[in-house]
Design brief:
Helix 7 runs parallel beside helix 9, helix 10 packs antiparallel against helix 11 and helix 12 packs antiparallel against helix 13. The protein has a domain of 164 residues. Helix content is 61%, strand content 4%. With 328 residues, it is mainly alpha-helical. It comes from Rhipicephalus microplus.
Length: 328
């Protein structure tokens, strides 16, 4: 196929080639029943003598040309080139020189096409390509918009019908998402973290999904320490949502933990007190400089976690009270 050759040989024509392939594949009808997914590094051949459905066309292209790998490699190569041109091109939304597209378009069009392949082709995104995309956009972003696009793209992949192979979720969460500096998270980044956090812990049986609510079945959650780091070190709006997520997670107890409420309360209070003391000791040691102010801000956030947790538990108490709620 000529479009594939252009992808391999001429980066200038990469975006028109991607758009053309998506338009052509979109002319084929979707299958009446969803087929089983194939890995992103391969696909099943279409049955001979029958009209092709869209997923069969995409699978055939994937099998013959490894399109997911090809587009992911192209994105990495483009990002390396964009990094070299950064001093000359400070605005990612502008079209520079003889280029026909802005940097934002270059990234978005590739991500859009990859999602089309995965969703309409019923393919799983495999570990190698998932890490490659995360590395070039989230870890080594050229512009902040790259990281934001990456967060939103992976959030979509982890939706109700995920496109990321469930077998690699835990490893990807541990080795990539949890390694990103919490200070780099945006609200979209926290939403991305939240989807991995819940998916991985549900798969491990530590969270239980009931009627769109997640119930705590095991307090030793993967990613809980990172969530605390987000509370302490992220931007204000991101930290606010992280505090809400902590409260939601540890106040919605599942059947196994209904008899362990006291232990859960003690663990949460102790976690808050330990972090409060660490920040307080830093403030005392540093006096009035900038680092001390940051530690004081962390103390305020920890106190908010404790306050909101206690208020939620008080509000959820269903029985007649002997002791007044702490809010009063």
């Amino acid at each position: 196929m000529g479009c594939v050759q252009e992808l391999r040989q001429d980066p200038q024509w990469a975006l028109p080639a991607l758009r053309h392939m998506q338009e052509v594949a979109g002319l084929y009808s979707e299958a009446p029943m969803g087929p089983a997914r194939a890995a992103g590094t391969g696909g099943g051949p279409a049955p001979g003598g029958q009209a092709l459905y869209r997923h069969e066309v995409i699978n055939r292209l994937q099998q013959q040309h490894s399109l997911v790998v090809l587009v992911a490699d192209g994105l990495s190569a483009y990002m390396a080139h964009a990094r070299q041109l950064l001093p000359e091109r400070p605005d990612p939304t502008q079209v520079y020189g003889d280029s026909r597209y802005s940097h934002v378009q270059q990234v978005q069009e590739r991500l859009k096409f990859l999602r089309f392949l995965l969703k309409d082709g019923q393919l799983w995104l495999c570990a190698a390509q998932a890490k490659q995309i995360w590395h070039c956009l989230a870890e080594n972003a050229v512009y902040p918009s790259d990281r934001e696009a990456c967060f939103k793209w992976f959030s979509k992949l982890m939706g109700e019908e995920p496109d990321l192979d469930p077998e690699i979720n835990q490893d990807f969460f541990e080795q990539n998402v949890l390694q990103l500096d919490p200070a780099l998270l945006t609200e979209s980044g926290l939403r991305c973290f939240e989807r991995f956090f819940r998916a991985v812990n549900c798969r491990q049986g530590r969270l239980l999904l009931r009627r769109r609510a997640h119930l705590l079945e095991d307090p030793e959650l993967m990613g809980a320490d990172y969530l605390w780091r987000v509370v302490l070190h992220a931007q204000d709006a991101v930290a606010d949502r992280a505090i809400e997520l902590l409260r939601e997670t540890y106040t919605n107890l599942g059947p196994r933990l209904q008899g362990s409420r006291t232990d859960i309360h003690e663990d949460m209070v102790q976690s808050c007190m330990d972090r409060l003391k660490a920040a307080y000791d830093t403030v005392c040691a540093l006096g009035g400089d900038g680092a001390a102010r940051e530690s004081a801000n962390r103390m305020v956030r920890v106190l908010r976690v404790l306050s909101e947790y206690v208020a939620q538990c008080d509000g959820d108490f269903p029985h007649d009270r002997v002791i007044l709620p702490m809010a009063r």
